[in-house]
Amino acid sequence: MSLSFENIELNKFYVSLMQDIAAIQSTDEEGAISEQIFTQQAVDLLAASGESENIVVRYDEKGLGTQKQHKINAYAISENYETVDLFVTIFNGTEEISKVSGQEIDTATKRISNFFRKAIYAADDEKNKYFRSEYADEIEETSEIFQFAYTLAKSQDIKDNLVRVNAFILTNGSYKGEFPSSTTIAGYNFYYKVFDIESLFNISNKPHLPNDIDFKSYGFSIPCIQSPSITDDYQSYLAIIPGEALAFIYEQYGARLLEQNVRSFLQVGGKKSTNFGIRKTIIESPEMFLAYNNGLTTTADEIIFEENGSSLNIAAVKDFQIVNGGQTTASIYHTFKKDKADISKIFVQMKISLIKNKEKFSDIVSNISAFANTQNKVSVSDLSSNRPYHIEFEKLSRSIFTPLTDSQPIQTKWFYERARGQYKNARLKESLPKSRLKAFDLKNPKNQMFTKEELAKYINAYQEIADGKKIPVGPHYVVRGNQKNYVQFINYNLEKKLNNVYYEDTIAKAILYRASEKVYGVKPNAIGDLRYITVPYTISLLNYLTKNQLDLYKIWKAQDISSSLKQLLHSMMTQVEAFIKDIPGGLYGEWAKKEECWLKVKSHGFDFDLSAIVQDLIDKKNPPKRIIISEDETELQKRQEELEKIKSIPTSVWKKIEDWGRETKALSDMQQNIAWNLALKVRNGSNILPNEISNGISIIEKVIVNSPELLFEIDELLESTEMNNSNHPEITLELIKKMVEWDRVKKRLKPHHFRMMFDIVNGKEQLTSQTKKYCLMNYHFISKYGFKV
Q1: Considering all CA atoms of the chain, what is the largest pairwise distance in Å, rounded to the nearest integer?
Q2: What is the DSSP string of 220-276?
Q3: d(Cα 256, Cα 271) in Å, to the nearest integer?
Q4: How far apart are CA 255 and CA 82, in angstroms?
C-alpha cells in the first residue's frame, strides 16, 4: 500500500515538473530548450539540499557519438576551489516516467569525463596530447562554457586547491542501476553521482541530503563511550576518531560534512583554512594533538555499533554532520596532502549526538550547531530563516497585493519562501476544493515566488554598502554565489524596521533584476555569456550613476520597467560586459569577484545616455507620496482572507466536518463545538469572532491532511446553490461591465472569477451559455455584498 502511495506521489511530482517546464518554455521569449530548463530545476533542488552551490547552468557539446565526444549542462566551483561539480543531463519529454538504461548512463559518464579532460589538459601539459591538441578547435571562445573551461586550465587557485570533482548525471527518467565507479583524472579524485526523478523527488521533501559513512568498510574502528544522561530527544557519545579517518572522509565529502548553516559562512579548505597552530602540531608533535585540540562536535540520525570485547565501537553513521570542528578537519587533510605529513599518530576527540526525536531533528541539529559556534562572528541562528527579519518580511508578502495594471487586471502577491517548501505546502493547504487551488495559483503565481537567497541577491545587487575603506556589499559579492552573498546580506544589509514601503521597494528591485536578465537574453540571442556577472554589475552601476534616484515606486505600481529603461540596460550591459572581459589572462569570473573590478567599473567613463530615463527617476519637485500601512492593518488583511476561506465552506460541509471530528476523535471537543458554531454562523451570516477564525483555519488544515474528501463537494454545492436562486436578471454585456467596475473597487470576487468577466468585456472570451452561467453565479455572490443593478 505504501509503495502504491509513493508511486502516486512520484507521478504527481513528475507531472508537475513537466508542466512547469512546458509553462516556462512557452513563456520564454528567447526559446529556452526543455533540457536546460529541467537542468535548472534539478540543480536548484540540489543547491537547496546542500549538495552543491554556486551552480551556473551552461551548455556545450561536441562530437556526440564519436570517441572524443563531450557534453556539459552546468557546473559549479566551490568558494575555496576544493570542489568542482560538473552536471550532464539525460532528458526525455515523455508524458510518463521513462526508464534510463545503463548504456545511457555510461554515455553520459564518458561525455562529462571527456569535457573535464579536455579542459584540465588544455594548459601546457604533455600528459595527454590526444585531448590537448584538439582543445582550441572543440571549445570556442564564444561558447557558453569557455570561461569555465579556461578557468580549469589556467586558474592557479584550481591548481593549488582542487581536491575532488563530482560528476552529476541528472535525468527525469528512472534509473535502477549502480553508480559509475569513482576514478582519477589528471590526478584528481573523480566521483560520479546519478540523480534520477526519484532522487529529485526525495530531495524535494528533505532539508538536506544525508552523509551516510561506513567507517568499518573503510578500515576504521571508532571507539566510544555512552553518556549517562538520557533524554527522549538525543543520546550523546564521546569518541576518539583517527586523523586518517577524518582525512579520508574529508577527501570524499569536503564541506558537505559541515552542517549546512555553518557551511554557509565558514571558510573551510584552501590555503586560508590550514591553521598555523594545527599544522605545526601535526608536523612537529602529532602525539600531542589530542591534548591540544578542542575536537569535533557532530550529529547523526543513526549510529551502527559493534562490540569489541568490553569496548563499544562505531562502525557506521547515517546523516553525519560536523557542527563544530570543520577547521580542524580541513587542516588535518591539507597538512596531510600538501605537506605529506604523517597523520597516523593524530587522534581527535569527537562528541557525537544521536538525534532520537525525528520530528525535531532539524531544530535540534540547528540548536546544537548554534551553541557550538558561539565564538563565530555570525551565529548560526543569525543565518536561520527563523530570525525576525525573515518572519516580518514573510508577513508582508502574505498581506500585500500588487496594484492593478493594464496588463494584469488581477491583484496578485509575491510569495516569499522564507523556508524551503513553503510554497508547495501553501498550495497543498489550498488544494481543496479545486476552485480554491485555482484562486491560489492566480493570486500567487509561481513566477512570483522567491527565496531568501534570491532576496539577498536582489537587494545586494541594487546598491553597494561601504564599511570604512571596504565594500562588503556590492556586485562583486553577488557573483560569488548565493551562500557567500547571503552572509554579506545578513552581516551588513538587514533593515531593522520593515514596513510596506520597504517591501514594495524590494519587490521593485526584484522586478528590475529579473527584467534585466530578460533583456540580457539567452543563447543564441544573448548579449554574451556572463549574465550572472553582467546583470548585477549593471544594476549596481545604474544605481551609482543615478545617485540612488531610480523611482522604485513607479516600478512597483507598473510591476514592470519602462521600455526606455530596458533599452538603456541593454546598452549598459553590452558595454559593461566588454569592459570586464578586457583584462589580461581571461579569467573573467575570478576577476569579477574582486572589489577592484567593481571599483574600476564604477570609475570607467562609459558612454551611457542617462537622459533617456529621466521619467524613470524620482521627481525631486514632486516625489512619490508613500503611505505606510500599520501592522494592525496588515493583520486585518490576513484575518479577512482567513474569514473568506471559512465562509467559502458551506454549512452542510461544516456539519460533516463536525461529525467526522467527533467520530474519529480527530477534533477536540472544543474544535467540534467551533465547527458546529461555524456551520450556524455561515448559514445565518452571523459575525464570526477572531478566535473562531483562527480555530476554523486549524480545523480546515486538519481536514486537508486527514480527510480531504470531506471538501470535494464544495464546488458543486456552491454552484447548485447559486443557480437555484430564481431571482436572477438577464446576463448582458452591459451588466457584466457594471459588475467588473463594481468589483474593481470592492474586490469580493475570486481572481479567476473576475478575470473571466474582464476578458468577456475586453473581447478576449465569448459570452456563451456556459459563461453566462458563471457570470450569474458571480452576480448572486456580489449581490450579498451590496451590488445592485
Answers
A1: 95
A2: --EEEEE-S---SSEEEEEEEEEHHHHHHHHHHHGGGGB-HHHHHH---STGGGS-H
A3: 18
A4: 9
Contacts by residues 770-779 (CB-CB < 8 Å, ≥ 24 positions apart): 772/731, 773/723, 775/731, 775/735, 775/736, 775/739, 776/722, 776/723, 776/728, 776/731, 777/718, 777/719, 777/722, 777/723, 777/753, 778/739, 778/749, 778/753, 778/754, 779/728, 779/729, 779/731, 779/735, 779/739
Shortest CA distance to 776 belongs to which of 708, 710, 712, 718? Answer: 718
Beta strands in 637-688 (DSSP E): none
Q: Assign residue 88 a region: left if phi > 0, alpha if psi is -120 to 50, beta otherwise?
A: beta
DSSP SS3 for 70: strand
In this structure, the strands spanning 234-242 and 347-355 are antiparallel
Distance CA 743, CA 184 (A): 67
pLDDT in tens, 672-712: 989 998 988 888 777 888 888 989 988 988 887 777 777 76
CB neighbours (10 Å) of residue 478?
Answer: 30
187 DSSP 8-state letter: T
What cell numbers appear for 173 in the block? 527518467
Residue 351, C-beta contacts closer than 8 angstroms, at least 6 positions apart? 236, 237, 238, 239, 295, 296, 297, 298
Whether the Cβ atoms of residue 299 and residue 422 lie closer than 8 Å to each other? no
pLDDT at res. 124: 45
Locus of grid cell 559593461: 576
Confidence bin at 352 (pLDDT 50/70/90): very high
What's the half-sphere exposure (Cβ side, CA atoms, 13 Å) at 728?
Answer: 20
297, 370 Cβ separation under 8 angstroms = no
In tens, the pLDDT along 281-316 reads 999 999 999 999 989 989 898 999 998 777 899 999
Q: Is the pLDDT of residue 207 over 80?
A: no
**Sequence letter at residue 483:** Q
Q: How many C-beta atoms surround the C-beta of residue 463 within 10 A?
A: 16
| Phi, psi at 349, each rounded to 5° | -75, 145
pLDDT of residue 434: 66
One-letter identity of residue 495: E
pLDDT by residue (tens digit) across 364-386?
A: 776 776 666 554 444 444 556 77
Q: Can you read off the three cell numbers belonging to residue 713?
A: 463537494
pLDDT digits (tens, 9 = 90+) for 153-194: 888 889 888 999 999 999 999 999 999 999 999 889 999 999
